[in-house]
Prior knowledge:
7-stranded parallel sheet, 4-stranded mixed sheet, binds nicotinamide-adenine-dinucleotide
Amino acid sequence: MKETNVKPATGKLGVLVVGLGAVSSTFITGVLMTRKGLSKPVGSMTQYDKIRVGRGAEKKYLPYNEIVPIADLNDIVFGAWDVYPQNAYESAINCEVLKEKDINPVKDELVKIVPMKAAFDKNYASRLDGDNVKTVKDRWDMTEQIREDIRNFKKETGVERVVVLWAASTEVYVPVNEKVHNTLADLEAAMKADDKENIAPSMCYAYAALAEGAPFIMGAPNTTVDIPAMWELSEKTGMPISGKDFKTGQTLVKSGFAPIIGTRCLGLNGWFSTNILGNRDGLVLDEPANFRTKEVSKLSTLESILVPEEQPDLYGANCGGEGNDHNGYYHKVRINYYPPRNDNKEGWDNIDIFGWMGYPMQIKINFLCRDSILAAPLCLDLVLLSDLAARDGRYGIQRFLSFFLKSPMHDYTKDEVPVNHLFQQYVMLKNAIREMGGYPADETID
Ligand SMILES: NC(=O)c1ccc[n+]([C@@H]2O[C@H](COP(=O)([O-])OP(=O)(O)OC[C@H]3O[C@@H](n4cnc5c(N)ncnc54)[C@H](O)[C@@H]3O)[C@@H](O)[C@H]2O)c1
């Protein structure tokens, strides 16, 4: 490895997950199994991808950990919070994502991961009724209690650094309120005034993490760190933040497939996406207020790849059909709770495109995926790369992590647009790794 300015990954890395459900238990079990040499971390960029550095005779393709100091899987120590008291072993068994044969070899380690009491408010996820919940005076006290949990975890485990990852349920939609969410002072005042409407529990976790010097990752579509007040806090404490919403199944396909239409200058009349899934995530998302948060996130993907204003003939006002109240093509996303499928989500996409002289064609995509199997490697990569970014002194929104996220954060107050195009995101990811490793950035796709 070349000399870099990134601090080395010495000591242990604490990974505190909010929510010990299907995604988290699959992620944790997979890391523990991999450590024992009993499984492979398939889908993880930090464990498999190779990036070209140098050109001509100097050209080499190196794995990430030969370019930058990434924490070793053996150095990770897990902890969690959840509304339900089940430990990571019970959760992995109950979620039925993995077979028992893939869980039992690490049972001893999993049973020791017992969730701390959750900072929870039923109004944010009404379908959950666990009782492993903190008693709090107000939102400020909620935040203080989470901070104490983080400090205790550090003391008890001796970890040198901590990353906090939200893999808990999607909260109800919290619109950005300029009076509360624009400055850190206003956000803190609202927490102290116990403003339950504008301060979601997830904001308390994020505040606590950043204040305790831990990067924070938002794996659900929640508003949480997507507000200027949190950007201010992350700058103040010098910590990276990223979000929102793991880009796993349908949106991964969408952000990889839409560029085919865009780069060949084909037109789009409409894109109808529907899903069935039957895990607890599906149950929570069956509630309209929680689905709204997801819908906003899922819809945003196409808008920055196929832009109506830039190509009005192909994606503009007349493309979406009669009675269409959209500005351009018609884009609809649905999620239906369907228990028989559990974690095995099925997504259908019907894409109505048009070609030469406006002649219509259709594309159908049917993805029979496994939600948590797709999300687990993203958890690992987001955790390791956020820890890396912190050691490089990077703070605020980490745009290079957009690759992993459905609705990537960006500074909307400065009219910055999100990058949703999968291959542009990949270039951003590779360049950040190159830069941290002391190599020049590069636009070549290889
Ligand atoms: N799996 C995917 O493909 C995917 C993709 C994108 C986003 N996500 C998001 O990841 C999150 C986790 O998904 P999952 O399938 O593991 O869901 P899950 O329902 O199995 O697990 C979520 C857990 O979070 C807990 N929880 C809820 N509120 C909490 C709080 N305030 N504090 C602590 N714990 C809390 C719940 O009790 C539950 O055990 C969801 O928000 C989901 O929308 C998943």
